[in-house]
Specification:
The chain is an alpha+beta fold and 243 residues long. The chain is 45% helix and 26% strand. The protein has 6 helices and 7 strands; from the N terminus they run ααααβββββαββα. It is rod-shaped.
Length: 243
């Protein structure tokens, strides 16, 4: 009986010894290790961390080196968590920056469309009269002239001080006949209209002049493209600065 009792008493220290060896071999998880160059190498080779966590760790170390920041008091886990927070903050700041850029672009586009509307819709131009003064050397008239009366309507809610642009005459099929510059520098009150008389000397060697001269009023349509408009309050809109 005594011999058997002694055998059992020897087994206990052996088991305790084996447990101590196993625990010592396992050690701390790498996430609890403090930063060092050796630990950084262990992080790269670790199977305990995902590739994403390794990438966060690597970025954190790189950033710390660029900022001369000491990481020696931080664990691997703290370094990874801190970098995740830093990256999230960067993403949020970039999102806000992009949102601000988008907002400014939308505001600029809105302002652009508002100014284009002023250019395209403030003044409507129509051709209401057209006749020809023919060449008559006895009266010292040495070339034909096309005399036209334009109707200028201010459709805006502001008085217009003056404007200039290009009027294009087209035939009944929409084909361009001729384009002319138009400049008007008298005030047209909001909602009012006025007439503008002008004449064009016909160059007998230019087909467009001959066609404009010979096309009757009822078969002519006009389009007007505003280049610049000045309102009575001093507001000036130029197409070259808008488009």
């Amino acid at each position: 009986m005594k011999g058997k009792f002694k055998k059992k008493s020897l087994a206990l220290p052996i088991m305790i010894g084996l447990m101590t060896v196993v625990l010592s071999a396992c050690g701390k998880p790498i996430t609890e290790e403090l930063y060092s160059e050796t630990v950084s190498q262990d992080v790269k080779e670790s199977t305990q961390l995902t590739q994403e966590e390794k990438d966060y760790y690597s970025k954190a170390v790189e950033y710390a080196n660029s900022e001369s920041t000491d990481l020696s008091a931080k664990t691997v886990s703290q370094i990874i968590s801190g970098e995740k927070e830093r990256q999230l903050k960067i993403e949020e700041e970039e999102k806000k920056r992009q949102e601000e850029i988008t907002r400014k672009q939308e505001e600029a586009e809105k302002e652009k469309q508002a100014q284009l509307k002023l250019l395209d819709e403030s003044i409507k131009v129509g051709l209401i009269k057209k006749n020809v003064t023919y060449k008559d050397t006895d009266k010292w008239i040495f070339s034909d002239s096309i005399n036209m009366t334009l109707d200028l309507s201010n459709n805006s809610d502001m008085a217009v001080k003056g404007f200039q642009g290009i009027i294009t005459f087209k035939d009944m099929f929409g084909n361009e006949i001729k384009s002319l510059n138009v400049k008007y520098d008298n005030v047209i009150k909001a909602g009012d209209s006025t007439s503008y008389d002008g004449s064009v000397e016909v160059n007998q060697f230019m087909d467009e002049d001959i066609e404009l001269r010979d096309t009757p009023l009822e078969k002519i349509t006009v389009e007007f493209k505003m280049d610049q408009i000045i309102f009575d309050d001093g507001t000036t809109v130029k197409r070259s600065e808008v488009e």
